Amino acid sequence: MGRDKSQLVYHAKPQRDHLTDLLRPYCKRVFWSVNAQQAAELNGTTQPYIVDAFDWPGPLNGILSAFRYDSAGAWLVVACDLPLLTTRSLDALVQNRDPTKLATVFYDTDGRQPDPLLGIYEPAFAPVALEAVAQNCFSPRQLLMQHPTRLLIAPDLRELTNVNDPINRQLV
């Protein structure tokens, strides 16, 4: 997209602030996942954040960085580019969580593969993901497809609309 997606405004405030407010009822604490450049721009914020701990791009870096911060807790992961997300999907995710699986996620908008950018990742996910990284696999979707994962049908597929592509921004 060429710019920080978390700063895009869809709900009269930056998306990361909107999502923080949306997630507060579901989490003890809400953290922002940021890279080193974003962290340098956050001087003075009271919002807790976790800086990417690894030297590779992509969402697996943020997920594993969260587990490095707290390896014993499950992590509710929400991508910053889901502006149509509501409590309806979050409620479905939390109510249908299966802690015996590596993660609980929705099928993607095509209904064929897991969507790794909205889900609950259990502590057992981290060692599996670190092993995959050691074998040059950096795709959380691939990991979810290859390991025990609770897959749900989203109550409203529109909520999974990812605006990483500027074309999808027109849908918002």
Automatic annotation (TrEMBL):
<keyword id="KW-0501">Molybdenum cofactor biosynthesis</keyword>
<keyword id="KW-0547">Nucleotide-binding</keyword>
<dbReference type="GO" id="GO:0016779">
    <property type="term" value="F:nucleotidyltransferase activity"/>
</dbReference>
<keyword id="KW-0808">Transferase</keyword>
<keyword id="KW-0460">Magnesium</keyword>
<dbReference type="InterPro" id="IPR029044">
    <property type="entry name" value="Nucleotide-diphossugar_trans"/>
</dbReference>
<dbReference type="Pfam" id="PF12804">
    <property type="entry name" value="NTP_transf_3"/>
</dbReference>
<feature type="domain" description="MobA-like NTP transferase">
    <location>
        <begin position="1"/>
        <end position="135"/>
    </location>
</feature>
<protein>
    <submittedName>
        <fullName>Molybdenum cofactor biosynthesis protein MoaC</fullName>
    </submittedName>
</protein>
<dbReference type="InterPro" id="IPR025877">
    <property type="entry name" value="MobA-like_NTP_Trfase"/>
</dbReference>
<dbReference type="GO" id="GO:0046872">
    <property type="term" value="F:metal ion binding"/>
</dbReference>
<dbReference type="InterPro" id="IPR013482">
    <property type="entry name" value="Molybde_CF_guanTrfase"/>
</dbReference>
<keyword id="KW-0342">GTP-binding</keyword>
<dbReference type="GO" id="GO:0006777">
    <property type="term" value="P:Mo-molybdopterin cofactor biosynthetic process"/>
</dbReference>
<keyword id="KW-0963">Cytoplasm</keyword>
<keyword id="KW-0479">Metal-binding</keyword>
<dbReference type="GO" id="GO:0005525">
    <property type="term" value="F:GTP binding"/>
</dbReference>
